[in-house]
Design a protein that fits this description.
The complex is a heterotrimer of chains A (787), B (437) and C (166).
Chain A: E1 3-8, E2 11-16, H1 21-27, E3 51-54, E4 61-62, E5 73-75, H2 79-95, H3 110-118, E6 135-136, E7 141-143, H4 153-161, E8 167-170, E9 177-180, H5 193-197, E10 203-205, E11 218-223, E12 232-240, E13 243-250, H6 264-268, E14 283-285, E15 291-293, H7 296-314, E16 319-322, H8 329-343, E17 348-349, H9 356-363, H10 375-378, E18 381-385, H11 389-392, H12 394-407, E19 410-415, E20 425-430, H13 436-443, H14 456-464, E21 468-473, H15 479-489, E22 494-499, H16 506-511, E23 518-519, E24 523-524, H17 529-535, H18 547-556, E25 561-565, H19 569-572, E26 584-589, E27 601-604, E28 613-616, E29 621-625, E30 630-631, H20 637-647, H21 652-655, H22 678-686, H23 698-708, H24 716-720, E31 725-726, H25 755-759, H26 762-772
Parallel strand pairs in A: 1-5, 16-17, 16-25, 18-19, 18-21, 19-20, 21-22, 25-26, 26-27
Antiparallel strand pairs in A: 1-2, 3-4, 3-5, 6-7, 7-10, 8-9, 11-12, 12-13, 13-30, 14-15, 14-27, 23-24, 28-29, 29-31
Chain B: H1 25-30, H2 35-41, H3 45-55, H4 67-72, E1 83-88, H5 98-104, H6 106-120, E2 124-129, H7 134-149, E3 165-170, H8 180-187, E4 211-215, H9 216-228, H10 230-236, E5 244-251, E6 257-262, E7 265-266, H11 267-274, E8 284-288, E9 305-306, H12 308-313, E10 322-327, H13 332-346, H14 352-369, H15 375-388, H16 395-410, H17 412-416
Parallel strand pairs in B: 1-2, 1-4, 2-3, 5-10
Antiparallel strand pairs in B: 5-6, 7-9, 8-10
Chain C: H1 11-20, H2 31-42, H3 47-57, H4 61-68, E1 82-87, H5 90-94, H6 97-108, E2 114-115, E3 121-126, E4 138-140, E5 143-145, H7 150-165
Parallel strand pairs in C: 1-3
Antiparallel strand pairs in C: 1-4, 2-3, 4-5
Helix pairs in contact in C: 2-3, 3-4
Classes of the chains: A alpha/beta (787), B alpha/beta (437), C alpha+beta (166).
């Protein structure tokens, strides 16, 4: 829309016609206070805090409901306005308990801030405040009625933002109250958006309430360890008996593409890290079969010695390595480098949750056609094939919902299930689970491909009207089906694609070469030239054993050693424990997993919140991982790999090229144990200095990744500053992907499960338990609101 | 059955058919019913609107907005259907006039809706009555059914190509729903909370369509304008205040009742002659001229004509025509408290100043009336009310604040007489408590 | 709603509701009348009423509860067979509304929003019922009784009691 010019506090401003005054002012740096106004949610005009004086209007006007107009003259601060705001706060404080010293929101409370600013510090009322007891609505959500100022943010974010509609307003007048959908409790997605958006301490969370004061925490902005959407989460950590413990997760600073969105896992399921059951000492299996704690020296010497012995006696082909979908890119890269250049084996794999090689191979030579998660926020049209984003990609679902609601984007979806996003869909096509491939054939013009589906033609017609579209597809698509889908999609004038995998660094594990046939960047092991040169070693040229083949080999007695980093393949693939009885097994993990129980050596490992590095979400968005928490006795996978290599007698400088480049400021630690120090990294990078003074420096490896994997050659400074960088997927070196063996095993996680981590999250367990106690609800317990 | 009370000064325009059995459709037809709408079929929409403008008719709900002007705001072309909405949610304390229209002359409401529909190009109307008026809903529903049966509603009404549907809707007890946008919310099956404006109903109202919403008396007056002529109607009243209206006289009067009197009728005369004066030889203490939300007038302020402009000039409002008369025995603190108790009960709770303000006013006034207040509490009450004025989302906050400011200003001494433990010297809170089981 | 669907309402009311939702451009417009008519038949808005109304309109029970709790005529607990609603708002107050309320309370032995043990009467102090010119006034269920005195109030109550024993 055309711009209009108007005056605010004597300053001449310009904004597009129709912009709300409050937004126009905020963009110009003029803060207008508001409780009920929240960007992206419907307007309320209820709190009356944003009142301003607009010339020629008889009354004060609310800036949140007034669109700017040509020639408008506005005053945002004056004695009259200050008095109006003060009076409103006085009224709020009339019934608001002044339990700020114990309130969770104390120190972070918008009501406190406004009281401070407008000075409503005198209590004029002597009557008793209205009181009601606090209520627990779910394992996650607690509600303290007297603290509520009825701004309705929670109601709106739950309904409009989450499309859950679990909160309502009941009664009227001073008896009005926020109410949960099941009278005395909530049945919802437990996302906690309502809690974070609450300007006061009325809604509090089961994990954080009454635990600490905001100023006692350090706040570290890192990447969520759960699903593959890669939300930024700011972890509140404080000192504990054995390190730094996480007490809170949120994204109130709105950093990252998820803005203030997080799902239950991102917000509350960090609690696995604080579990008592964590392994915090290396353990060695004794002849009697029991584990016995050992020192790091003993354990590493033993493990490294056995590995070296097996390599030297039986060859690298007798060793298998299994990586993780939740370690950093640097760790994944380092693991494959360790396997290939030190153990001399291509027997390396990970739990594959999407067929990225086939996807990237199909995209190759099509230009930059991979969609960032950001693309879903403003795409004009979106096609979702398979998957259930609400359950498996909550951020993607959030982006799509908001885009449909606020920008009238069109969503087209086809699915074998009645997915919740159907409510936002312009067109929805129910299909049989086995027909995802046939659907693409049909869309591409094969009339016979979807025989018997009467709605298919209409769906195709709706799609044909689109010129620009972003296509996301689930793990229903693999190999040749992906190839066909990309070929079909190329018919749109503008198109981008996203391949949906399951875990925080599923994409990175694949990109970094945790595959028996592909090196980092999908370079075939048969043409390892540049890698061999860089590694200074001869790399095995034959493709190695994949996950299934490794266990088959173990069962045959052909796998002498297995090294597993932060993964539980025994449980995932239902491996018969007997298969590993003749294999020397080293497991590094947080818990005594099914796989760890079969190990000969267990090394206690850190999780993603306890280390630094980078991670890649399923959309190819690369982000910095920062160390937030700390646990005495555990080490990052990165450290463990380096130490094993060292104990094997390998020159670790060839594994981690540290100590190269210009040296500067040794005063800073920059190992994987570094946290806030990454600010320093920004400074260093900005001055073209590269400090790689430690063999545990992930950025020494990140340098190498950037040298060898062109897709990862993204601006470093922006990344270091905490922003996401989209990969250059068109630079992937893969030749062919579609003909590989299909080993994709979808995790089928829901909102309340998260693989191994989920099993160790008390919060996720509590939520699922609370649902089981109430029979007659569907497994997800989700409220489906009818149109 | 309640009737209009008679007095020689009554000018029966809107009450022309009252007491004549006009709820029966045949009787209504005998009394020249449904003739005016047929006149309007021969007129251009603009001509209808101009006629209403010329009559000087102003909204009878309280705000007194010129009706013809309101209609003219409805856009000619609209992608969404347009609607006519009758606000029969009569809830302002002191007001009991619309119920007589629904009871005695329901078809005049239908006819008014049809004329408004022709004027703005609407095809559907809703008659929203407050839920307490169940007996009137039954009368109104029968009238609508009869009109359908005679072909005055439905497809091709009166043998023309026009279609028109009317639905009678019940409220369920909420003063706030009398506010026009809250009424639309209620009619859409939601909590009766007002909407953000703009857009105004004339542009985007019910179901998002352009909507004319008028008070029941306003719309029921429209056919009579065409019956007697706009100029003639206007001439009955005063300048810019055309015609007559129904005044509801209540409180301490010999002859309380609803009277149809010309706009601008003298208030003193209304009290002492029409209403028969104060009973038992008591003296007049105060008058609430237009329903409980209008600031109180003192005995020396009642020599005014009862039209929108003159009452406004006297510092109050003509409002909904509810004249409440208070004799010298009334405790003004108790009266103020009862007024606020109502608004506290009816506040929808949407915005802070009204939700919290009415609650604290009620608490403070209760304490004051019982004698638990000190001097600064009076100023605090005034401060509260003044800080609600003009700050709330909808006029309910003003409706609570305006009379409160008036009571404190005009009867400050009575407030002071309650202070410091003295309690109420006028009309002490009754010493009874309600029984309990 | 399929015809064979069970309903907690009488066939007449169910049929009325079937028609009611067709009258409006938007089904939800039927919500307020539907709830009130359901209350008339069942006596109050029970959980079962909320469930069926939500189903009929196609909204959540929470949506229904939000609306029910807003309107003062809607109640979620049973009241007496004769629900005596005494107006004490300004016009009635000036003409003895409070005394009337007290009198009813004494006569019936119950207070505001209470029900007699025999379930015959319940009492409620209500806001303006639109009888200002005929004050003081009382509404029993939907019936108006106006220009009351303590004596005529007694007569009204006696009549209802007699009606009940017939």
């Amino acid at each position: 829309m055309a711009d209009v010019t108007f005056t605010v506090d004597g300053k001449q401003l310009t904004a597009p016609k129709g912009t709300l005054l409050i937004e126009a002012c905020r963009q110009a740096g003029i803060e207008i206070p508001a409780f009920c106004y929240y960007p992206g949610l419907s307007l309320q005009g209820a709190c009356r805090m944003c009142v301003v004086r607009v010339e020629k209007m008889p009354k004060l006007q609310t800036a949140c409901t007034t669109p700017v107009a040509e020639g408008m003259v506005v005053t945002t601060e004056s004695p009259e306005i200050g008095q109006a705001r003060k009076a409103t706060i006085e009224l709020l404080l009339g019934n608001h308990p002044l339990d700020c010293p114990v309130c969770d929101a104390g120190g972070e409370c918008e009501l406190q801030d406004m009281t401070f600013k407008y000075g409503a510090h005198q209590s004029q009322f002597v009557e008793i405040k209205n009181h009601r007891e606090e209520q627990q609505w779910s394992p996650v959500v607690y509600f303290d009625r007297p603290r509520c100022i009825l701004c309705y943010r929670c109601v709106r974010v739950c309904g409009e933002g989450m499309d859950v509609w679990a909160l309502g307003i009941q009664n009227r007048g001073s008896g009005a109250v926020i109410a949960p959908n099941k009278q005395d409790h909530l049945e919802c997605e437990e996302c906690g958006m309502c809690i974070d958006i609450c300007p006061v301490g009325a809604l509090t969370s089961g994990t954080y309430r009454y635990k600490t004061r905001p100023w006692e925490m350090s706040h570290v902005s890192t990447v969520c360890t759960h699903c593959a959407d890669g939300c930024k989460t700011t972890l509140g950590v404080r000192r504990s008996d054995d390190g730094m413990e996480i007490v809170r997760g949120d994204n109130r600073d709105k950093s990252g593409f998820n803005n203030d969105f997080l799902c239950i896992k991102g917000r509350y399921a960090f609690d696995f890290a604080n579990r008592e059951e964590r392994v915090t000492q290396p353990m060695l299996r004794q002849p009697n079969g029991e584990f016995k704690p050992a020192t790091w020296e003993e354990a590493l010497d033993f493990a490294a010695g056995k590995l070296r012995e097996i390599r030297d006696s039986r060859g690298g082909k007798s060793i298998g390595v299994i990586g993780s979908t939740r370690i950093t890119n640097e760790e994944a890269y380092l693991l494959q480098k360790f396997a290939r250049s030190i153990l001399g084996t291509n027997n390396i794999d990970h739990h594959r949750t999407a067929d990225y090689p086939a996807f990237l191979a199909a995209l190759k030579a099509k230009g930059q056609k991979e969609a960032s998660i950001r693309d879903f926020a403003d795409a004009k049209a979106i096609l979702v094939l398979g998957n259930d984003p609400t359950e498996q990609h909550p951020l993607l679902a959030w982006q799509i919902r908001n885009n449909v609601r606020n920008n009238q984007a069109r969503l087209h979806a086809a699915n074998h299930q009645d997915i919740k996003l159907r409510r936002q869909a312009t067109s929805f096509l129910p299909i049989q689970q086995e027909n995802y491939g046939a659907l693409v054939a049909f869309l591409a013009g094969n009339e016979k491909a979807l025989k018997g589906n009467a709605e298919a033609a209409g769906f195709r017609d709706a799609l044909r009207k689109e010129e620009s579209i972003v296509i996301a597809f689930g793990s229903e698509y693999r190999g040749k089906d992906i190839e066909a889908l990309i070929a079909f999609g190329a018919g749109f004038k503008n198109v981008k694609f996203a391949c949906l995998g399951d875990y925080a660094n599923s994409r990175g594990a694949s990109d970094m070469g945790l595959l028996p046939d592909l090196l980092p960047g999908y370079v075939p092991v048969t043409s390892a030239g540049s890698f061999a040169q860089e590694y200074g070693a001869a790399l095995p040229a034959e493709p190695g054993l994949d996950m299934i083949q490794m266990f088959d080999a173990a069962g045959r007695g052909d796998l002498a050693a297995l090294y597993v980093a932060s993964s539980d393949p025994v449980k995932l693939y239902g491996v018969d424990p007997a298969a590993l009885k003749n294999t020397f097994v080293i497991v590094q993990d947080m818990f005594l997993t099914e796989t760890a129980k079969l190990a000969d050596v267990i090394l206690p490992a850190a999780n993603l919140y306890e280390k630094a590095g980078t991670a890649t979400n399923t959309y190819g968005d690369l982000q910095l991982v920062k160390k937030a928490a700390d646990k005495a006795g555990v080490r990052a996978d990165f450290d463990l790999i380096v130490r094993l290599a060292g104990h094997m007698g390998h020159d670790i400088k060839t594994l981690v090229p540290f100590g190269k480049g210009l040296l500067a400021d040794f005063g800073q630690s920059r190992g994987t144990q570094s946290g806030e120090a990454d600010r320093h990294a920004v400074w260093l990078t900005a001055h073209q200095l590269e400090l790689k003074a430690s063999p545990f420096d992930p950025f020494a490896i990140f340098d190498e990744i950037q040298r060898l994997v062109p897709a990862y050659e993204v601006p470093r400074l922006n990344l270091m500053a905490g922003n996401d960088e989209h990969l250059k997927s068109d630079l992937v070196q893969i030749q062919t992907g579609a003909a590989r063996r299909d080993l994709v095993l979808p995790s089928n996680d829901t909102l309340f499960t998260s693989g191994t981590l989920g099993e160790y999250s008390q919060m996720l367990h509590s939520v699922m338990e609370s649902r089981k106690q109430k029979p007659g609800r569907n497994s997800r317990g989700l409220m489906i609101r009818k149109a | 059955m309640a009737y209009l009370t008679t007095h020689p000064d009554v000018v029966p325009v809107i009450s022309f058919r009252f007491g004549k059995g006009a709820a029966d459709i045949d009787r209504y037809l005998e009394l020249d019913g449904y003739k005016d709408v047929q006149k309007c079929f021969q007129m251009e929409p603009d001509a209808i609107i101009n006629e209403v403008k010329a009559s000087g008719l102003r909204g009878r709900g309280g705000a007194g907005f010129p009706t013809g002007l309101k209609w003219s705001f409805v856009p000619k072309e609209s992608a969404k259907p347009k609607y006519i909405l009758v606000n029969g949610d009569e809830s302002e304390p002191g007001t009991c006039k619309d119920r007589l229209i629904f009871e005695h002359d329901p078809h005049s409401v239908i006819e008014g809706v049809l004329i408004a529909g022709l004027a703005v190009g609407a095809r559907m109307g809703f008659i929203y009555l407050r839920g307490e008026y169940r007996f009137l809903i039954e009368i109104m529903e029968k009238a609508v059914a009869d009109a359908y049966q005679r072909g005055f509603l439905g497809k091709g009404i009166f043998g023309t190509k026009h279609d028109f549907e009317i639905v009678v809707q019940t409220g369920a007890g909420a003063y706030e729903v009398g506010e026009e946008s809250a009424l639309m919310e209620s009619l859409e099956g939601k909590r009766g909370v007002p909407r953000i404006r703009p857009p105004f109903p004339a542009v985007a109202g019910l179901y998002g369509g352009p909507t004319v919403i008028n008070n029941a008396e306003t719309l029921a007056t429209v056919p009579h304008i065409f019956r007697i002529g706009a100029k003639e109607y206007a001439a009955l009243g005063t300048e810019r205040n055309g015609g007559t209206r129904l005044y509801c006289l209540s409180g301490h009067l010999e002859k309380p009742g609803v009277y149809e009197l010309p706009m601008g009728y003298n208030l003193r005369k209304m009290i002492y002659e029409v209403g028969g004066g104060i009973p038992n030889g008591k003296k007049l203490k105060a008058v609430v001229p237009g329903g409980s939300s209008t600031p109180v007038l003192l005995p020396e302020e009642i020599d005014i004509g009862m039209d929108f402009d003159q009452v406004a000039k006297a510092g109050s409002m003509l409002g909904s025509g509810g004249v409440v008369v208070l004799d010298e025995t009334v405790c003004m603190v108790e009266f103020a408290l009862r007024t606020i108790k109502f608004y506290q009960h009816e506040s929808c709770g949407w915005c802070i100043p009204c939700r919290e303000g009415t609650d604290w006013l009620k608490k403070s006034l209760t304490r004051l009336h019982m004698g638990g207040a000190v001097d600064k509490d009076i100023d605090q009450i005034k401060y509260l009310a003044e800080n609600m004025l003009g700050r709330t989302f909808c006029p309910l906050g003003d409706a609570a604040a305006m009379p409160t400011v008036g009571f404190v200003q005009k009867f400050r001494k009575e407030f002071e007489d309650h202070l410091n433990g003295k309690g109420c010297p006028y009309h002490p809170a009754p010493d009874y408590e309600l029984a309990t089981v | 709603m399929p015809a064979e669907k069970t309903t907690i309402f009488s066939p007449e009311l169910a049929a009325r509701f079937d028609r009611l939702v067709t009258l409006y451009p938007v089904k939800r417009s039927a919500l307020v009348p539907m709830l009130l008519y359901a209350q008339d038949e069942i006596g109050y808005i029970s959980d079962a009423v909320i469930a069926e109304v939500a189903e009929r309109i196609g909204i959540t029970e929470l949506d229904v509860r939000n609306v029910v709790s807003y309107y003062s005529l809607m109640r979620t607990k049973p009241v007496g067979k004769y629900h005596v609603q005494v107006c004490t708002n300004i016009a009635c107050m000036l003409r003895g509304g409070n005394e009337l309320l007290h009198h009813c309370s004494k006569r019936l032995g119950i207070g505001h929003k209470q029900t007699t043990p025999d379930g015959l009467f319940s009492l409620e102090e209500v806001e303006c019922i639109g009888s200002c010119s005929w004050a003081p006034a009382v509404q029993v269920n939907y019936d108006y009784h106006e220009n009351l005195t303590l004596e005529t109030m007694d007569k009204v109550l006696d009549e209802y009691r007699a009606k009940a024993s017939k």
